[in-house]
Amino acid sequence: MSNLVVNQLTHPQRVRLLYKTILRLHRGMPTELRALGDGYVRDEFRRHLKCNPMEAQLFMTEWARYASTITQQLGLRGKPKGELGEEMDPNAVEMLKDDQVVQLYELMLAAKGLDGDTITADDVRGSSKSK
C-alpha cells in the first residue's frame, strides 16, 4: 500500500491494517508459534484500545517494526529463512514496567512449552527490593 493511501487512513484504520498484516504474516510461521503469536497479538491490541496518544504512537511504531522484522525473516514465500525473532536489547528490558516483565516471562515460558511456572508483578517487585 502506498504512503499516500496510508496517510489518508484514520488512526483506527491504521491500527486495523497493522493488526491484519501481522496476523497474515503469522500464517508463514510454524503452527505452534503461529497460535502463540496470534493470541498474543490479539491480547495486546485489545489491551491498548483505550491507551493515550503517546502510548498509541509507541505501540504502533513497535508493532510496525515487528511486522517489518517478520517480513524480512519469512521472505516472499512465507517460509522462515533461519531463526525467527531477535534478541532483546538489555537496556530495553531494564525500561520495562513490572507487569511487562511478567508478561515477557510468561510469553517465554509459553514459547518454550513450559507450564505452571508463572510469576506475578508482586514477585518481580519483591525480588528487585531484595537486591
Helical percentage: 55-70%
- Can you tell me the number of structural domains? 2
What percentage of amino acids are in beta strands? under 5%
Alpha-beta content class: mainly alpha
| Mean pLDDT across residues | 79
Q: Number of helix segments?
A: 7
Radius of gyration: 17 Å
Contiguous uncertain segments of 5+ residues: 123-131
Element string (H = helix, E = strand): HHHHHHH
Taking the sheet with the most strands, its summary is: none
Terminus-to-terminus distance: 50 Å
Number of strands: 0
From the spread of the alpha carbons, the general shape counts as globular
Family: Belongs to the complex I LYR family. SDHAF3 subfamily.
Organism: Drosophila persimilis
Subcellular location: Mitochondrion matrix
Protein name: Succinate dehydrogenase assembly factor 3
Give an account of the 3D structure.
With 131 residues, this protein is an all-alpha fold. It has two domains: 84 residues, no CATH class; 45 residues, no CATH class. 68% of the residues lie in helices and 0% in strands. The chain is built from seven helices and no strands. Helix 2 packs antiparallel against helix 3, helix 2 runs parallel beside helix 4 and helix 6 packs across helix 7. The longest helix has 22 residues. The protein starts with a helix and ends with a helix. The C terminus is likely disordered. Keywords: Chaperone, Mitochondrion, Transit peptide. Pfam families: Complex1_LYR_2. It is found in: Mitochondrion matrix. InterPro entries: SDHAF3/Sdh7 (IPR008381). This is Succinate dehydrogenase assembly factor 3.
